[in-house]
Fold these 2 entries.
Entry 1:
Amino acid sequence: MNVEKWMKTHPHTIKPLDTIEHARQIMQEHRINQLPVVRDGEVVGIITDRDIRDAYPSVFADPTRKTTPNPHDVTVASVMTTNVITMSPDDGIVAAASLMRRERVGAIPIVKGKQLVGILARSDLLEALIALGSLAETRAGQ
């Protein structure tokens, strides 16, 4: 079974020079944890909710520091992961699950050539598991 059947098409994205505040707003509004970073439709990075949390100033920040970064000034490019793991829509769902587990990532951008065509998240893998488990149970009951 291919990734294409389970991936979300038209994923929410962000650009490298957008701010982390804008990325955080998109993630909160759409209840997602990862955003592919794209330039001209090509994946150049990925930013996660953890990247954003780590970039925000903390109330426990070093008091000797003269200034703290303003989330309105910090760009996505400065905190995103650039060595992005991607897959093709034709790749298998089991291979995707294995890759996500091995690399400890919550989502994989899906590309055709270099162009983003979707995203596969952990929740999509759970949907596939539920569907396949239901199918197996139905067949076993026949």
Note: Residues 122-141 form the longest helix (20 residues).
Entry 2:
Amino acid sequence: MDTMRDRFAPVVSRLLDEDPRVAVVLAEIGKDGFEDARHRHPDRVINVGIREQLLVGAGAGLALTGMRPVVHTFASFLVERPFEQVKLDLGHQDVGAVLVSAAASFDWPAGGFTHMAPGDVALLDTLDGWTVHVPGHPDEAETLLRHAVGPGGNKADKVYVRLSVQANERGLPVDGARFLTVREGRGGVVVAVGPLLDAVLAATEGLDVTVLYATTVRPFDAAALRRATEAAGAEVVLVEPYLAGTSTAAANDALADVPHRVLGLGVGRRELRRYGTVEEHVSAHGLDAGSLRERITGFLGAAAVHVR
């Protein structure tokens, strides 16, 4: 199976051909994938070099002229390093862009902590008006990229698309807005985000729980969570492929008028200095199926453990 990032350049190259508003801004990373598109559209495929603050600033400048910029590099260099430009050049000036990241939380362990960004979604959460897509499969990444860029993408929309080498076995029909109900039960609700769906389904096999699948986490689909808790009870576990607890406030807000409990599972704050492999990071953060089952059943208790 190809990766989400394998889809990125071909999809956006087609969008460049289809829509004269679309431009791509790169900072060396990923430039080879746009070589053909650069020859066709030399004024709309821009490589600023290893200058990530300029990367975002150039995208904002294009947006001010009415273009729809797609801005791409590793998550740590796209959200964390140029955060002031994301905040001011895009947010303060009220213009939009599609930020597309690679490397996710720990997709390239050999790159070290400089190339890891488990706090990216939490950091964007400090800003107003961002849509955040977290696809769990290359097919979903393609759908969400097209949704973010156009023709439905408004030039003022600020969108973050978080690509990962981790992926579920199959893609689902995502729409860029709503959570999907993948499994129904009565002993609690587990929200699986993006590439963690397969692990969550394995972890909850035989348990009496509802599993919701989220690939668009901002705006948070409060209505879907409320509907699920009406049947399954207001005990919620969020399983996210980035910083643990990132969406607990959103879930609490969705259920503010009913008694409820929320557990946020995800990447821990502690830096793992022996970088190892992706699989070792997954296990160390308790995001493998066995660890998730233990933590989910420990939180939800007897109601969930009742085998369907």
Note: The longest helix spans residues 4-18.
